[in-house]
Give the backbone structure.
Amino acid sequence: MKILITGAAGFVGRHLIDALKCFKENEIYAFVLNKNEFQNVELPAERIFQVDITNIKNVYEKIEIIRPDIVYHLAAQSSVGLSWKNPALTYNVNITGTVNLLEALSVYCNDARVLLIGSAEQYDVKYDTEQPIAESHKLVGNNHYSVSKLAQEAAAGLFIKNTDLQIIRVRAFNHIGAGQETKFVIPDWCSQVISMEKNLHKEACLAVGNVKVRRDFTDVRDIVNCYILLAQNGVSGEIYNVGSGVSRSLEDVLEIIKKNSTRNDIKWKVDENKLRPTDIMELRADVRKLKSVTGWSPKYSLDDSIQWIMEEMRK
């Protein structure tokens, strides 16, 4: 089975490779953006390709060589914050890059199965009573990132109708774990605390944004196992929420980080610069549809994930 992972050097990609290696029949290939990322992908060098997915010629050349059976499309600009700072990059990577990939696949391996990753940010959530969020929930573009994912999903719908590609679309809720970039909130806070532990003279005060928001956090090790099950058992054309089905506030997260710190004087204060122009107060996944086709459920708790993140950072 030939498997291609785009964005393979990223946070989820690295963990997905580790999970897929457990199956000896898998022949895993990777797309990375630049040569510096080769060292972050634990695969034979001949199976790693430097590809800019916004360059259609580049994508065509590599897909013609690999001709994968299954594609995990993880390459994306996935930061909401960065999407406000650089909308053009977000749209180019998330929309044009995805269309380039699907077009190349439809030419060279038109029966491939593709797992396409969207986001819970696509949902229009205004009231707490709307939780948990089912796949049928109203959609909206609250930021440039969510708009790009809405367009990506819609474009994929046209490929589903007009080609033989088997495309399974995911709306992923927040996932966390060791190796995630500090541009995301939990590794950012953990990193700040680890720095405070190393420098006891440093004030033990975290700069935070809105800590009242609630999010559905899932450990990345659970996420990649779910993705594997969906790539195998998901129905082409269908959309699946991927999350734990439980929401926790960022205040809860801070308390867990504090509990796992070697310092007992950790506190926090709101930094106005970290507040977003718009913020959804709660996002919690209705995962009944997902469980009906995969039987999946998470193994790791939020406490497990944060402890893992902090232990790896200390190393």
